[in-house]
Amino acid sequence: MSDSLRDEVHQAARRAKVAATALATENRQRKDAVLRAMADALLDRAPEVLAANERDLAAGRAAGLTDALLDRLALTGSRLDGIAEGLRTVAGLPDPVGEVQRGSVLPNGLELRQVRVPMGVVGIVYEARPNVTVDAAGLTLKAGNAVLLRGSSSAEQSNSALVTVLRDALVANDFPADAVQLLPCADRASVQHLITARGLVDLVIPRGGAGLIDAVVRNATVPTIETGVGNCHVYVDRAAEFDVAREIVLNSKTRRPSVCNAAETLLVHAEVADKFVPEVVAALRERGVTVHGDERAVRLAEGVVPAVAEDWDTEYLSLDIALRVVDSLDEAVAHIAEHGSGHTEAVVSTDVRATRQFVARVDAAVVAVNASTAFTDGAEFGMGAEIGISTQKLHARGPMGLPELTSSKWVVWGEGHIRPAS
Amino acid sequence: MSDSLRDEVHQAARRAKVAATALATENRQRKDAVLRAMADALLDRAPEVLAANERDLAAGRAAGLTDALLDRLALTGSRLDGIAEGLRTVAGLPDPVGEVQRGSVLPNGLELRQVRVPMGVVGIVYEARPNVTVDAAGLTLKAGNAVLLRGSSSAEQSNSALVTVLRDALVANDFPADAVQLLPCADRASVQHLITARGLVDLVIPRGGAGLIDAVVRNATVPTIETGVGNCHVYVDRAAEFDVAREIVLNSKTRRPSVCNAAETLLVHAEVADKFVPEVVAALRERGVTVHGDERAVRLAEGVVPAVAEDWDTEYLSLDIALRVVDSLDEAVAHIAEHGSGHTEAVVSTDVRATRQFVARVDAAVVAVNASTAFTDGAEFGMGAEIGISTQKLHARGPMGLPELTSSKWVVWGEGHIRPAS
């Protein structure tokens, strides 16, 4: 890896740290004002952003990107409206900084308070979508952090234009421009330099496919939060109402098959499999879903493709679902423990004991009872916006909003207190 | 690294994961009962524990360990009493598991709750003190976790005897023995296998010197929490009362110089340096402290050793302190930002504005106003016990008690809710 690239990344991180120090003591009014100014500026300067995006799209077409990837990359006037509206939404959210999380007076009279403070310098490593550039900048800024954005090279022109607009708005509002910086993206090594900048970067969040996330988490020496891989299950208990179960399965699988909260495996209790499996398979096939079933499922319904071992561990992100018949709730819980990714797991049942057992024993960021897996989302959870969905257990688990972009500080107030020898 | 050692560590982690699944749904009554049974068993079986400790001490003496290290390694009847009492204290603490952290009913009627759940499998890597074996096992168990203990080879016999007693108590109380396991310690590679066991280990906490902590954090691919390095400062403002300032400096430096919350650098505002520096240097020297001062300090007081650049970054952990005269609060804040380790920073001042500025602008786990740095401690903060002091910003910052050994889970209750297309 080139030393000059490392220097470039580390110098950006040092500038971010200086900016973060200034941001840490900004009040909500000023932060909201700059977020709204950014929204205005994005609309005012839409032509230059869209022109930059057109250059990325042209390069993408020349490089043979798929239509799906080109669509992810594309900005339009209405998409820019949505991005600007996202900034206004963040401006309207409560400021997490300064919130007193715990507080007490100790027996010796010391006043103790734990308050939320910004995380400091946050790195975001992400793939094609240019909207992430603005969403991530808005959320990290509102939480008082400086952000280092490392987007994909296919969106370089778009990201650069967006960041220029954001930085100009920062400066115009008397904020440090280096609160938002775009890192070089031509060379993969810039990711490595970012995730090993110990002492300069407080947190890195990877957003993208499983390969990207795994590479970041494995190679980082700065703290990271693992996001997004969702091998989600729906378990239909013997006490499930079929109508409810069918609609939850269909919604969990087909609402948006490409997102991480989509269901990938259906588990059906053997006592109701004879009746429910043919019904749900027919409904899934009608929606264009390919069902990969175990032996019993293949026997019970027409058009089920025999599942292979990998199916249980596959996050299809497509109109495919694995289907297994289980003999008990225990077997369902064990299957999920072995194959789940700790994202979202749903149970459909009218039985109090079964639902309570499922909730208590399934280890995941979100456990849904008689509800679709599709509800795992920051906006649905009332967070206003999300920076990602954590599938790790440290710091944040599930959808991450503004509070998850903060740390805390203990403040101790005394009057000359000293600690006696013990 | 040998594959068989990796297999041994990973198999222990797999057994821990099975045990953790059972522990996750245990109630407080049963957890407290087994903690008390462990305390009783340690006292009942003191002779075999002390005999094992004697073997470690003999080996340590033969290997030429220093008296200080031998003292850290040594167990006595009264130390065992203290260790057992620690388990009873943990039994008396509230159970963090199941606590509802947030909860609401969403506009669509979904009931949403965020509840504390155990972290799962927690690894602890630590140095000589055998008491950590029991303290860490008690805290992790109370929070519903299985623990993998990786102690030092110099305490192998002691740790092994202690873990045998704890596991017997687990089994006698119908808990899985594998909730507490001691990993092989002869080969350093077992640490590496532990901290790279992704999917098997949820968290590793290193406890020990800076070298150990740095090695664990740098090489881990599982989440870690950085603990303990404390380059703590006391800043004496121009508005400080000298008596208060002197006592806080003396207590922060000399109460227990070898622990991480001890002060290592004193910063004095230039406006009061003429009077305060000679006074505080004399008081420090009287307590046997060597003062390493900048040019102005050397000029102002007798017996000040000229500081070199490294002094500002040194965690002495001894009767040494660095002393710098600063021209302003800004300069003090900047010095701390450059040299501090984010542990504990204290200000002594009667001025409201100065103290508020210091609190807002200094970025550390604990900021103390007119109080000794020595208060940074889980027991002092009312946590009952601590597993370490985090100096990172992710998940936990400052003293870590039982809640910091938990994660959370979102539970969503619906009645057949599906999410509309957007």
Automatic annotation (TrEMBL), chains A, B:
Pathway: Amino-acid biosynthesis; L-proline biosynthesis; L-glutamate 5-semialdehyde from L-glutamate: step 2/2. Residues 6-287 form the Aldehyde dehydrogenase domain. GO terms for molecular function: glutamate-5-semialdehyde dehydrogenase activity; NADP binding. CDD domains: ALDH_F18-19_ProA-GPR (cd07079). GO terms for biological process: L-proline biosynthetic process. Keywords: Amino-acid biosynthesis, Cytoplasm, NADP, Oxidoreductase, Proline biosynthesis. One of its GO terms (cellular component) is cytoplasm. It is found in: Cytoplasm. It holds the Pfam family Aldedh. Its main location: cytoplasm. The keyword Nuclease does not apply. The keyword Amino-acid biosynthesis applies. It comes from the Bacteria. Its EC number is 1.2.1.41. It catalyses: L-glutamate 5-semialdehyde + phosphate + NADP(+) = L-glutamyl 5-phosphate + NADPH + H(+). Belongs to the gamma-glutamyl phosphate reductase family. Catalyzes the NADPH-dependent reduction of L-glutamate 5-phosphate into L-glutamate 5-semialdehyde and phosphate. The product spontaneously undergoes cyclization to form 1-pyrroline-5-carboxylate. PANTHER family: DELTA-1-PYRROLINE-5-CARBOXYLATE SYNTHASE (PTHR11063:SF8), GLUTAMATE SEMIALDEHYDE DEHYDROGENASE (PTHR11063). This is Gamma-glutamyl phosphate reductase. It comes from Kutzneria albida DSM 43870. The gene is proA.
